[in-house]
Amino acid sequence: MCIFCSISDGSIPADVIAGDERVMAFRDISPVAPSHIVVIPRDHHPNIVELTQADPELAGHLMSFVARVATQENINGFRVVFNTGDDGGQTVEHVHAHILGGRSLQWPPG
Ligand code: 5GP
Ligand code: ZN
Question: Could you give the CA distance from residue 24 to residue 85 in angstroms, rounded to a whole number?
């Protein structure tokens, strides 16, 4: 089973920050910034392109939830990233937003 589906159903533990019946946020197991939060829809969708086509209402709810979680993190700015596909660096095929912050982030990204 998909690792993020397993986190969603509680069969794999995670440091959960917030959630509701449709979405959840938890801390990345391998953080690349002092604040590194992963936000997922509980339903399995492979990537942001498929999610916006299959369930645009859920995609909108996910983005509102991302904004709320990022605001509550009390950081001085943040970045929201959807790694997508091979060149995008996506390693887990369950759509997720990364919220990154807690340090000055470089641009352009690597
Ligand atoms: P991607 O590389 O697909 O954009 O992001 C996947 C993210 O999920 C990575 O940052 C990775 O550290 C994180 N991750 C993978 N497995 C787990 C896990 O079991 N628990 C948590 N909390 N994060 C995970
Ligand atoms: Zn999944």
Answer: 22
